[in-house]
Write a structure and sequence with these properties.
This protein has 27 helices and 5 strands. The chain has helices at residues 2-11, 22-36, 42-56, 61-75, 82-96, 101-115, 124-144, 148-166, 169-185, 189-203, 210-226, 230-244, 253-266, 270-286, 290-306, 310-325, 330-346, 350-363, 369-387, 389-394, 396-493, 498-524, 527-531, 534-545, 565-585, 618-621, 625-636; strands at 551-557, 590-598, 601-608, 640-645, 651-658. Strands 1-2-3-5-4 form a 5-stranded mixed β-sheet, sandwiched between helices. Helix 5 (82-96) runs parallel beside helix 7 (124-144), helix 16 (310-325) runs antiparallel to helix 17 (330-346) and helix 25 (565-585) packs antiparallel against helix 27. The longest helix has 98 residues, at 396-493. It catalyses: ATP + protein L-histidine = ADP + protein N-phospho-L-histidine.
């Protein structure tokens, strides 16, 4: 009985231990903001703002972003250092954790790429602690995606070694518990027991760790009940009770009482079980934690079922029902509907049982439909028996034959229908795949054509640049030297005249022409890209395009010297086009350009503080040649472009390429 109740508790996912109303949250958050206004040190104040952003990231993404931006402003130039760039990406990832997991994972990896670089000694421990936290969050996202084993691997290979490296026993203990809980959900209870014991050993005798110990004792007891180690569960629960005496206001007490109630249920001591369940229920309601309330009510239902008290069990199920119906979990609804049908049947309320089972049947998979029909027919038959028992007894044998015939007919019809559906799905899949192949082939042909055009353009640019630099440039330089020689001879043989002044003017104009010619040649095919690498050429590009009223900051991280020439040219042209667009349209005073490589991916980020634009507006539907060229270059390299912009709030272009198969 306990495993079924605990399964419901897990599926209901008790995620908010400190449940609060919106008004309480706003009041608490505003009070924290008022307190940090009294901090004089700008760096300390910026860190406090980031922590406040982390608090709001679970409740109000807009407010969380506001505090990150305010923190960045407080940091000033320090925000551009590796350490604070890592922190800013870390807290932005927390904002996207629930609303955009893919972007959150990207931000966590960017944070890690900054925090593992050269960090000042005074921040090195904190940087490692942040890396441990971000990898723990990254692993949690993997678990959400249905990869719990990968989550355990991240904890064991990334997070816990970092916690050991900095000697943070609290961080180690928390993540040992995370490993144990993940293994418990995978039903590997023996392995989970080992990690719970490791976590408890780390916290043994530590002052100020009562809350962590209480949590560990309760979760370890839950695991012991799963593995049916009842005596060990009793020992852990006794330790939890002793620990709870020192923290009587702990928000974890309802969970302790819920697990304790489940333990006493396994011991058939229903009075003590109900005592703990009621304590748990009162605490959960006081915290406004509806998920926990539903879990405890279902545990009470299980206890009454075990005691063979279906009426009281039914009452508890009716209390659970509103909490389950307002959630999206189909498994929870199926479980509750099924038990409502079963309990109503026990009470002889066959019509009500039929109603609940009809609702349950709508939620189960197609594979279970036939079985659901049989159960529904059985419930209907029991209801009819209560009304017409004598008549059913006379025709019982005939009905049984009829039911068998109906079942056979349904089976044949079901097989035929299933075959028809499968054939229809296969036909549709074949048609869709064929259509997609044609569309992809057309797109590939267009991209190949565009790629060939780009390669031809780059070769022609290179040829023209060489001709301009080596041919016409040399000719102009030669003419300039000859004119200079003539001017020198005249200055030695006769005094300066108006014609000699004009000659010097022509020589100066020739100098400007040569310089302009060389500038055009460099733009067409920069020498630094071919001979000094990507980082140097992009830095030169940013310096060259900067204006007195426009600052362009460039940062590079982990760039290699051995990228292929086609990849170098593509990245250079993309950044060049983005900067040109910003110069033309953004009215910005600051542009930030970042290029980095991490974990097999190449990242480009170009952001400005200009007037921005609406990425979904009409102007984007009629995008110009520049942005179209950028998209085509990115598609050729199988990259991904993300535009983060809003009117009046600047614009950011984030691009990533998977390097495998490119270089």
């Amino acid at each position: 009985m306990y495993k079924l109740a605990a399964l419901l508790a897990y599926l209901l996912s008790i995620t908010q231990i400190f449940a609060q109303s919106k008004e309480e949250l706003k009041h608490y958050g505003d009070s924290l903001y008022q307190q940090l206004q009294h901090i004089d040190d700008r760096e300390e104040k910026a860190l406090a703002l980031l922590d406040l952003s982390f608090f709001w990231s679970d409740y109000d993404a807009a407010k969380a972003r506001q505090y990150v931006a305010e923190s960045e402003k407080q940091l000033g130039d320090k925000s551009k250092t590796n350490y604070y760039q890592g922190l800013l990406h870390f807290y932005r990832a927390a904002i996207h954790f629930d609303i955009d997991p893919i972007k959150s994972k990207q931000q966590y990896m960017q944070a890690d790429s900054f925090l593992r670089q050269d960090i000042p000694k005074k921040n090195s421990l904190a940087a490692t602690r942040y890396r441990a936290r971000l990898w723990g969050s990254y692993g949690a996202l993997l678990q959400r995606e249905g990869n719990p084993s990968e989550y355990v691997q991240v904890l064991l290979e990334k997070v816990i070694p970092m916690a050991k490296q900095i000697g943070d026993s609290t961080l180690m203990g928390n993540n040992y518990q995370n490993v144990a809980m993940a293994l418990m959900n995978l039903e590997e209870y023996d392995k989970a027991t080992t990690y719970y014991q490791d976590a408890l050993a780390l916290l043994k005798g530590r002052t100020g760790a009562d809350e962590q110990r209480l949590t560990l004792f309760v979760n370890a007891a839950r695991n012991a009940l799963f593995s049916e180690q009842h005596s060990y569960a009793r020992t852990l629960l006794d330790s939890a009770a002793n620990t709870a005496k020192s923290i009587p206001t702990s928000s974890y007490l309802p969970i302790y009482h819920n697990v304790a109630g489940s333990y006493w249920e396994t011991q058939r001591n229903f009075d003590r079980a109900n005592f703990h369940f009621e304590k748990a229920l009162a605490g959960a309601k006081e915290q406004h934690n509806n998920d926990m309330v539903a879990s405890i009510l279902f545990s009470q239902f299980e206890a009454f079922q075990t005691r063979n008290q279906p009426a009281r069990a039914m009452a508890k199920l009716r209390e659970v029902l509103p909490y389950v119906q307002e959630k999206s979990s189909l498994k929870n609804k199926q479980m509750v509907y099924y038990n409502l049908a079963h309990t109503a049947s026990q009470l002889g309320k066959y019509e009500e049982a039929t109603t609940w089972y009809e609702q349950y049947k709508q939620l189960v998979d197609t594979i279970l439909t036939d079985k659901g029909d049989a159960i529904t027919l059985e419930l209907e038959k029991k209801y009819q028996t209560a009304e017409k028992e004598n008549e059913l007894l006379r025709v019982k044998a005939a009905n049984q034959q009829q039911q068998l015939a109906i079942q056979r007919t349904r089976m044949v019809a079901g097989i035929f229908l299933l075959t028809t559906i499968v054939l229809g799905m296969l036909s549709y899949m074949w048609y869709t795949a064929l259509k997609n192949r044609k569309r992809l082939a057309a797109q590939k042909e267009q991209l190949n054509l565009f790629n060939a055009m780009l390669q031809g353009q780059e070769r022609e640019r290179s040829r023209i640049a060489r001709d301009l630099h080596d041919g016409l440039g040399g000719m102009l330089a030669s003419v300039k030297l000859r004119l200079s020689a003539v001017a020198n001879r005249e200055s030695k043989t006769q005094p300066q005249t108006a014609s000699s002044t004009d000659l010097y003017t022509i020589i100066n104009q020739m100098d400007h022409s040569v310089n302009e010619l060389r500038r055009i040649a460099r733009n067409m095919m920069p020498e630094s890209l071919l001979y000094m690498g990507l980082e140097a050429s992009l830095r030169d590009l940013c310096n060259a395009m900067a204006l007195p009223h426009l600052q362009i900051d460039f940062q590079a991280s982990n760039l290699r010297p051995d990228y292929s020439q086609s990849f170098l040219i593509a990245v250079y042209r993309i950044v060049q086009e983005l900067l040109t667009n910003a110069l033309k349209h953004s009215d910005a005073s600051q542009i930030w350009v970042q290029c980095s490589e991490a974990d097999g991916y190449f990242y480009i980020s170009v952001e400005d503080n200009g007037k921005g634009f609406d990425p979904y507006g009409e102007e984007m539907k009629q995008e110009g040649i520049g942005l179209s060229n950028i998209r085509n270059r990115i598609e050729i390299l199988n990259g991904h472009l993300e535009i983060d912009a809003a009117t009046g709030k600047g614009a950011a272009f984030h691009i990533q390429f998977k390097l495998e198969g490119i270089i």
